[in-house]
From TrEMBL:
One of its GO terms (molecular function) is metal ion binding. It holds the Pfam family 2OG-FeII_Oxy_2. Coiled coil: none annotated. It comes from the Bacteria. This is Alkylated DNA repair protein AlkB. Gene3D superfamilies: Alpha-ketoglutarate-dependent dioxygenase AlkB-like. Keywords: Dioxygenase, DNA damage, DNA repair, Iron, Magnesium, Metal-binding, Oxidoreductase. Its cofactor is Fe(2+). GO terms for biological process: DNA alkylation repair.
Length: 199
């Protein structure tokens, strides 16, 4: 099934759920859980250090350095499984990607706070393609102040789904994965295109 959601302000969400066949999604979940160089990073938020409440990894083409929350991530070299998935995601979304951020939510206490993927190196209106594996989780979008009064948008991202965020989504909406009691382990991959930016 494909669900298309036009967001106020010109954002566009396209959810393919399911996207991967169940057996393929399950095999990929296990392969990534056991085969990725997961780390728990320490970040600085408002001058204070925190351990991120999830595990992460950054893979990409040479030169795709990613900076956020005071972290500088140098890309690891694409594994065969990640490279094959990149091609499938490019085909489905019609957009090119040179990097992927992986997040491993070990259970319902792991989460991602509300944010926009609006770093300069992603460009003006980035297309971001998000593949989910493992347990389903709530994915919530909230309007920024300019659109105050718009209702939040909530999706359930199931294992094997593909969500493409495009248009002006990152300007007018922040998204997050709230803590969710009882949620099982989940891996999410957000494919991105990092552009060269002046230092
Ligand atoms: O886990 C998710 O579905 C969201 C991940 C995300 O927003 C990000 O990596 O920037
Ligand atoms: Fe994000």
């Amino acid at each position: 099934m494909v669900r298309v959601e036009h967001l106020a302000g010109g954002g566009l969400l396209t959810l393919h759920d399911p996207w991967l066949a169940a057996a393929e999604a399950e095999a990929l979940f296990a392969a990534l859980r056991d085969g990725i160089a997961w780390k728990q990073e320490t970040i600085r938020v408002f001058g204070r250090e925190h351990q991120q409440p999830r595990l992460t990894a950054w893979y990409g083409d040479p030169g795709t350095t990613y900076r956020y929350s005071g972290l500088t991530l140098e890309p690891l070299v694409w594994t065969p499984a990640l490279s094959a998935l990149r091609r499938q995601v490019e085909e489905a979304s019609g957009a090119p990607f040179n990097s992927v951020l992986l997040n491993h939510y070990r259970g319902g206490n792991d989460a991602m706070g509300f944010h926009a993927d609006a770093e300069r190196e992603l460009g003006e209106n980035p297309v971001i393609a998000s593949v989910s594996l493992g347990a389903p989780r709530r994915f919530v979008l909230k309007p920024v102040r300019a659109l105050a009064g718009e209702a939040p948008v909530e999706l359930s991202l199931g294992g094997g789904s593909l969500l493409v965020m495009g248009g002006t989504t990152q300007h007018f909406w922040r998204h997050g994965v709230p803590r969710q009691a009882g949620a099982g382990p989940r891996i999410n991959l957000t494919f991105r295109r990092i552009l060269p930016v002046a230092a």
